[in-house]
TrEMBL record:
GO BP field: proteolysis involved in protein catabolic process
Residues annotated as domain LysM: 437-484
PROSITE patterns for the chain: LYSM, PROKAR_LIPOPROTEIN
Co-factor(s): Zn(2+)
Protein name as catalogued: M48 family metalloprotease
A GO molecular function held by the record: metal ion binding
Signal peptide as annotated in the record: 1-20
InterPro entries according to UniProt: LysM, LysM_dom_sf, Mito/Outer_Membr_Metalloprot, Peptidase_M48
GO cellular component: membrane
Pfam families to which the protein is assigned, alphabetical: LysM, Peptidase_M48
Keyword vocabulary terms for this entry: Hydrolase, Metal-binding, Metalloprotease, Protease, Signal, Zinc
Organism of this sequence: Pontixanthobacter gangjinensis
Amino acid sequence: MPRIKNVALASVATMSIALTGCMGGEIPSASAPITQTEAQQGAEFHPQLLSEFGGTYQGPQAAYVEQVGKNIAVQSGLGNARDSFTVSLLNSPVNNAFAVPGGYIYSTRQLVALMNNEAELAGVLGHEVGHVAARHSQRRQSEAQKNSLLGTGLAILTGVVLGDSQIGNTLSKGFLQGSQMLTLKFSRSQELQADDLGIEYLTKAGYDPRAMGTVLQSLADQNALDARLQGRESANIPAWASTHPDPASRVRTALAKAAGGTGTTNRDTFLTRIDGITYGDDPKQGVVEGRQFIHPELRLSFTAPQGFYMVNGTRAVSINGQSGKAQFSLAAYNGNLNTYINSVFASLSSEQQQLRPADIKRTTVNGIPAAYGTARVTSGGNSVDVVVFAYEFANDRAYHFATITPAGNGSAFNAMFNSMRKISQTEANAIVPRVIDVVTVGRGDTIQSLANRMAYDSGKVERFRVLNGLGTGDTLQAGQKVKIVVRGR
């Protein structure tokens, strides 16, 4: 959820299509230098991408990630690779990495924190360099054009909160998370080619090529752990491993291709350089604590329904469950809640389906002026209810939930609607970030004793193992460096 307090929630569909767009003419080969057209395209969208993913991370770790990224880019053989590539560390709590034409490479701080050595970092960045070198974005768009699949561009995007249903496509521009929508979805063959190129770059740079497989394994383990902790049956949340097809198969393939390979991992150097990096939500963007969302700068809090889980994004907070989906966000406010609600419904509409509430009702929630409206829509022969519930926090500031449920099941979110409250400055001041603390295992330290220091109320041992890439049979050795998550200052 953003720090800004009064901006419209703009659709990013147009930008996403442009990011994968064919730049005209024949697509260059993997060995061709980055063209001026490609560089201009990347430069045009770079600031917008930074905004979508919480901006650049402000910390000493960013310079280290940039250094490793540029060093691995040189291995691609692209002309002037070190100068042609821009490597950015993003202030996002989502495990993700991606690239766009023109040599712009991105990794989130969360994904870096999950890694356990420099070779894994180089492998992930090398994979993204491979996408750029092989012109995968351009090729995907070229294929889409040949097959007349452009339309809304959803065929080459991923992360639709509402799924692939008709109503999901209709409402996608309002319900898509910015950070989910901008993650490109490549074909299986393109992902495997990028893995191969990443392994090739690792080998050329003197890194252990098995790092590509181990980082993919950590990502798969993290997704599975998140699913268990959130009570979900699957790990299908936006992440670098899950948005790139078949991560389990890619782990096996990457490890097999790198079998027998040797090289450096620079584990201790890596851990020293990322020590102190923010882990999880940045309080400036709000934090998710179990079923509660708290935003210390906006001075508000709400609680998701039992059985639902939340994902905090830069533009919105998504709330997901079996009986419905929701997002919490903001839009421009002129002091009239009725106008505000109608504008949100309009933003969720399409040329094929206009959404209008049957009526708008006024109420008060914990002393906050509020209003809500419901529109019933037919989707694939089924009826669903779309509800917009808005709150006025000031004369020029309002926030809202937009929810979708099977018709007549809108009560699934009533408790959440009624949980919205303003928080005190004291409560806001108590919200501090979690950070990675790199510690040296001492004599007598165990996985259990170190896990007990993790700043969580549940799943401490499981979190510790996944964070440090430890299997169920792995143990610790005195003198070994490991990561724990603690409360920052």
